[in-house]
Amino acid sequence: MDGRVKVVGQVERVDGRSLTYAEFVDRFMEPNRPVVLTGLTGSWRSSEDWTLPDPADCGRPNLGFFARNFPSPLVPVAVCSSREFTDQKRLEMSMPEFIDHWIRNTEDHDSSLLYLKDWHFVKEYPDYVAYTTPTFFVDDWLNMYLDSHPIHRDSDIANHKNEVNCADYRNMRSSVYNLNDDVSEKHFPEFHKTEWLECIQEQNEVIFVPSGWYHQVHNLEDTISINHNWFNAYNLHWVWNLLYDDYKVAREYIEDIRDICDDFEGLCQRNLAANTGMNFYDFFIFIVRFTLANAIELCHIQQLEDTVIPTETAHHLVYNLTSIRNVASKMIGTDAFCTDNLLHISDDNHTAFSNIKEILEEDSFRRLLMTLSETYEHIGRAERICFNTRVSSQMGCLSLSCLKSDCNVVDHICTCEVHGPEDLVRLIDNVLLDK
Ligand SMILES: O=C(O)CCC(=O)C(=O)O
């Protein structure tokens, strides 16, 4: 017998103005539970500009404002009535074209529904500040990193001739396409055991969707949504697990040509990067940089004598390092990092994680360090306002002014060598042991 979803409860709803950051962590981020947060969008420009001003319109989207002010020549659009594997068919069109289509659909309902999806609005209109990210979500490593670094720096994806095409196994995985359909027990044998929460997200409400939670959205009326995909120390292991799962698919797909490949692991990693957007080396380069940034911040903070800033911020930094350490220890022993395979990786990739001195001198790393420092300062400030504690007046040895060759903190880190996950675990242990 085929099954339908079994809704067992509602997503919890909390007023975000009376929730502290620490409570958000304890109740939702750390246990990976969803929540609808209210009261956080009062000052957003988008709440005002993007909705029709007449109360009789009940806050419906102001489409004319969009067409006039954001006339992008090309925006990504999904065709809701179509299906390509586990997703909808994608098109590109101009914003005015999209809005025209939307208005026509509202009037006559016979053209197919379009959904403007995954449009990077902030990148395209950086001067229009549509919203401020709620403090609960500012510890966002993905966007901190992407703002300063390209994710796949190696140019090796397309260059190898006579290799199994990177895109060949894309879309082979299956997932339930529509929860409202009968879901085949044959294809999804455990489906009847799944339990679902549901909620209606009202205008100006924010929903936190935890890592790995399958979710499906049905718009009950015309809607504009703002989304962030992000992760941090609380779900870094999810990112690694997903990458590892994708890697296994990539490897399985070419398993039968292993014996005739000079560099089988290299091919797996190239295919992984082509499909997932990053491979194990990219991910490692990323965690090395976050380790260095957190370690430098931690060392500097501990040189401050003030007792307020160091305790709370140091707690975040230690948690971050511990989370990276856990993931790095899972990477030890993967084929990608065995000595033979490391001999095959490009100099670019190897330098990007092993040459600590060079990393510390990169402008992109300095930008990352600055953003990291500002982020935890911002969270700390929000916590102090909540608890009404004293604000520190200490101006100590902050990382930004102190990323100099004569700084003993940086000197110490510069002496470390990182040739793989084992070294990274050792480096983190040394930093944490010092504390
Ligand atoms: O905003 C939407 O319509 C859905 C977005 C979503 O589900 C997601 O980003 O995962």
What does this structure look like?
- This protein is mainly alpha-helical.
- It has 2 domains: 45-130, no CATH class; 141-160 and 233-434, no CATH class.
- Helix content is 43%, strand content 9%.
- It has 16 helices and 8 strands.
- The protein has helices at residues 21-29, 45-49, 63-69, 95-108, 121-124, 141-146, 236-253, 264-276, 280-301, 308-331, 339-344, 347-354, 356-361, 363-387, 408-414, 421-434; strands at 6-10, 13-15, 35-38, 75-84, 87-93, 114-116, 195-198, 206-208.
- The strands form 3 sheets. The chain has a 3-stranded mixed sheet with strand order 2-3-8, with no helix packed on it.
- A hairpin with a 2-residue loop joins β4 (75-84) and β5 (87-93).
- The longest helix has 25 residues, at 363-387.
- The radius of gyration is 24 Å and the shape is globular.
- It starts with 5 loop residues before the first strand and ends with a helix.
- Residues 389-401 have low confidence and may be disordered.
- Bound molecules: 2-oxoglutaric acid.
- Residues 215, 217, 225, 227 line the site of 2-oxoglutaric acid (AKG).
- 2-oxoglutaric acid (AKG) binds next to loops.
Explain briefly what this protein structure is:
The protein is mainly alpha-helical and 435 residues long. It has 16 helices and eight strands. The relative contact order is 0.12.
Jot down its keywords.
sequence-specific DNA binding, 3-stranded mixed beta sheet, 16 helices, JmjC_dom, 2-oxoglutarate-dependent dioxygenase activity, JMJD6_ArgDemeth/LysHydrox, JmjC domain-containing protein, mainly alpha, single chain, globular
